Amino acid sequence: MYIVQIASECAPVIKAGGLGDVVYGLSRELETRGHCIELILPMYDCMRYDHIWGIHDAYRDLWVPWYGGAIHCSVYCGWVHGRLCFFIEPHSADNFFHRGCYYGCKDDNMRFAFFSKAAMEFLLRSNKRPDVIHCHDWQTGLVPVLLYEIYQYNGMGTQRVCYTIHNFKHQGIAGAEVLWATGLNREDYYFHYDRLQDNFNPFALNMMKGGIVYSNAITTVSPHHAWEARYTPIGYGLGHTLHLHQHKFTGILNGIDYDVWNPTSDRYLPFHYSSDDLEGKAKNKTALRKRLMLRDSEKPIVCYIGRLDDQKGVHLVHHAIYYALHRECQFVLLGSATEPGIHSHFAHERYILNNNPDCHLELGFNEELSHLIYAGADMIVVPSNYEPCGLTQMIGLRYGTVPIVRGVGGLINTVFDRDYDENHLPEERNGYVFYQTDYNALESAMDRAIGLYYEYPEEFRQLVVQGMACDYSWNHPGEDYVEVYDHIRYK
Ligand code: ADP
What we know:
The protein is an alpha/beta fold. Helix content is 37%, strand content 21%. It has two domains: 2-255 and 475-489, Glycogen Phosphorylase B (Rossmann fold, 3-Layer(aba) Sandwich), CATH 3.40.50.2000; 279-468, 3-Layer(aba) Sandwich (Rossmann fold), CATH 3.40.50.
């Protein structure tokens, strides 16, 4: 099959979070299964150009219709760790992708509406006719709308769209200008409950809703989150729309790239190890301590890696730091916050804990350090308010770092409580789960994990080994996606 992924991220060249990992990992898996995969991405000024090999002009004069005129674009092509990627660079005063950031601009709606339009125009002009277009999140929600309302009449009548939602919180709420700019026009037609009209604000358009309504298949990133999105407030108002389109909606658990995340060969690790020989993990722990200037001790290291955002349960992250220190653990945090309030809160904590030899808070994004933390820590806390899938607990498992998670979304589908999970055999259990959002719930799960570490080290080690034996590679999800593609493709 010929599949084109259109996305706003692809790790490691463009990575703000899990979306980038998924786009890259899935592409790689599909390619190893013999499918032809290409990616279309924005050409951001701040992306990691050092991860692109052989970049060259692919299409010099792409004129993308925009409002009444057209914007001149260049399309570059290069390989990102073996994946063929096309990068779209518009030349206009808007400087859509020359902002020094991926997201967070006032005109994000227009930036990604433009990207969606440009991606479709590129497919059309370069005569690319994939069997399936796979697009992701609100940024590319207009892709199926454009395909079915415009491009299918221009020679793209057999293309089909799979749309994956990684996070329902951000939906791309826009005004009518998006319609006029992209050539969809017809305000009265699109401002309709059955099409793009936002379910709560009748005067706004919802690009994610457009993606749901117009795609041939919709997926979200774990089976449990698919349920949550339909039946709980986590669907952020799209529950009813998903209900109307339930026949094409499903949840497919993300995988992690087992080549990138591999403790036996990780190029960022000073020492390699496997579940048969965990000595390297202990050495990485020492290396982590040295790097972060933590004192040498017998204490376990508890870590948190991830965005510092309301979604991630920052109040519990904060509490986990102090509870771990109180329970004779060391704590390492690696996180970045886009919200200034959250950033300054953790910056203040960092200042307070600056001289504590058992704690290190690193604020920022650091891929390389994240690998060493996954390898060197003993436990990882993921106390999310909601978590569509979550990759950090899966990476933690792969690196023998016991996850302590809140039982929501994909966390429920991947972590099985050592003491209480009744649906899995004791030898299949791999971590600790708590359900409430209060401190007691978190403390009781941390307590059980830390207690096992100190009092029953052999059993803790067994839990580590069981976690490392779990298979959260792209193998199964890859199969599931191929099944979805096969189901929707034009035959
Ligand atoms: P989300 O997509 O909601 O941010 P996920 O758990 O799905 O969360 O994915 C997070 C990914 O981003 C993981 O690969 C994690 O290692 C990485 N990550 C998150 N924050 C950081 C950071 N500050 N530095 C390095 N890597 C990070």
